[in-house]
Amino acid sequence: MTEQLRPDGSLRHLLTLETLSRAQLERLLDRAQTFVRPLGERPPRTQALAGLTVANLFTEPSTRTRVSFELAAKRLGAEVVNLEVQLSSRVKGESMLDTVYTLQSLHVDALVIRDAEAGVPGLVAGHVAPHVSVLSAGEAHVSHPTQGLLDTLTIYQRKQRFAGLAVAIVGDVRHSRVARSAWHALRALGVADVRLVGPAALMPAANEFEGCARFRSIGRGLEGVDVIMMLRIQKERFGDADVPDGEKYFAAWGLTPERLALARPDAIVMHPQPMNRGIEIASEVADGAQSVIRDQVRNGVAVRMAVLAEVLGARRA
Ligand code: NCD
Question: Which domains does the chain have, with CATH numbers?
Answer without folding.
Answer: 22-140+299-315 (3.40.50.1370), 145-296 (3.40.50.1370)
